[in-house]
């Protein structure tokens, strides 16, 4: 199964907005309708922060938002805070009960 | 409140097998799919496979087919993940995860470190 491509790292200053891209393979026939994003602090379990491309689970800050254009999904973090420093992973349901994760993006708050 | 509690860390030799357990509480276990995801040191998350609510159906990522088995015991609300023919590249933290919405991983276990070393 093909992986999703994310940038390895994205830096940002406190208060800034940053975006992380997640690009799928356009030739695999997937419309990437079921894209989600996870925040992962080292040593802790990952946390779902976006599902259905752009929806937030209850309790997740509205500073996190998702979008999609063609086969590229994006996560935007606005008003960057120190606690946002973590690894972020996109994930997508592909088909036939197969899921895939992106390679992960390390967000560094400068 | 949903809780997934995993078994403890394991150290295995190359070629051996490991079984990691995930015990669920606080929800209707019999209606849940359970997935397994792993993270090798310095690497990203990797989806391994899932088992359906009854345990009668599983699906595994292609790279694990032939040496991965997921089973569930509804009487003990436990899902087991067994990986065979271990190699050093299987050293990782293994997580179980439960979707509330079919396509997503809402709840996670605390993770189990499996170390494969001679």
Describe the protein in words:
The complex is a heterodimer of chains A (110) and B (118). Chain A has 110 residues and is mainly β. Chain A is 0% helix and 46% strand. Chain A is built from no helices and 9 strands. In chain A, strands 1, 3, 4, 7, 8 and 9 form a 6-stranded mixed β-sheet that branches. Chain A has a 3-stranded antiparallel β-sheet with strand order 2-6-5, with no helix packed on it. In chain A, a hairpin with a 2-residue loop joins strand 7 and strand 8. With 118 residues, chain B is mostly beta strands. Chain B is 0% helix and 48% strand. Chain B has no helices and 11 strands. Chain B has strands at 3-6, 10-12, 18-25, 34-39, 45-51, 58-60, 68-73, 78-83, 92-98, 107-108, 112-116. In chain B, strands 2, 4, 5, 6, 9, 10 and 11 form a 7-stranded mixed β-sheet that branches. Chain B has a 4-stranded antiparallel β-sheet with strand order 1-3-8-7, with no helix packed on it. The radius of gyration of chain B is 13 Å and the shape is globular. The mean pLDDT of chain B is 94. The chains are: A mainly beta (110), B mainly beta (118). At the A-B interface, strand 3, strand 7 and strand 8 of A face strand 5 of B.
Spell out the key features of this protein.
heterodimer; A: 110 residues; mainly beta; six-stranded mixed sheet; three-stranded antiparallel sheet; 9 strands; 0% helix; 46% strand; B: 118 residues; seven-stranded mixed sheet; four-stranded antiparallel sheet; 11 strands; 48% strand
Topology, please?
The complex is a heterodimer of chains A (110) and B (118).
Chain A: E1 9-12, E2 18-23, E3 35-40, E4 47-50, E5 64-69, E6 72-77, E7 86-95, E8 98-101, E9 105-109
Parallel strand pairs in A: 1-9
Antiparallel strand pairs in A: 2-6, 3-4, 3-7, 5-6, 7-8, 7-9
Chain B: E1 3-6, E2 10-12, E3 18-25, E4 34-39, E5 45-51, E6 58-60, E7 68-73, E8 78-83, E9 92-98, E10 107-108, E11 112-116
Parallel strand pairs in B: 2-11
Antiparallel strand pairs in B: 1-3, 3-8, 4-5, 4-9, 5-6, 7-8, 9-10, 9-11
């Amino acid at each position: 199964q093909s992986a999703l491509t994310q940038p390895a790292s994205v830096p940002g200053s406190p208060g800034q907005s940053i975006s992380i891209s997640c690009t799928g393979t356009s030739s695999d026939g997937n419309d990437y309708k079921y894209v989600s994003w996870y925040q992962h602090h080292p040593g802790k379990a990952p946390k779902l922060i976006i599902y259905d491309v752009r929806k937030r689970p209850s309790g997740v800050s509205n500073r996190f938002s998702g979008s999609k254009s063609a086969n590229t999904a994006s996560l935007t973090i606005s008003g960057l805070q120190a606690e946002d420093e973590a690894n972020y992973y996109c994930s997508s349901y592909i088909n036939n009960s197969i899921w895939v994760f992106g390679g992960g993006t390390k967000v560094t708050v400068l | 409140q949903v809780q997934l509690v995993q078994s403890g860390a394991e150290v295995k030799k190359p070629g051996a097998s490991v079984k990691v357990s995930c015990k669920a509480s606080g929800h209707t276990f019999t209606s849940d799919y359970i997935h397994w995801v792993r993270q090798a040191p310095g690497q990203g998350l990797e989806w391994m496979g899932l088992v359906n609510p009854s345990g009668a159906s599983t699906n595994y990522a292609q790279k694990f087919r032939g040496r991965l088995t997921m089973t569930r015991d509804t009487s003990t609300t436990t899902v087991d993940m067994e990986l065979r023919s271990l190699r050093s590249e299987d050293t990782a933290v293994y997580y179980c995860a439960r979707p509330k919405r079919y396509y997503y991983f809402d709840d996670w276990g605390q993770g189990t470190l499996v170390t494969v070393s001679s």
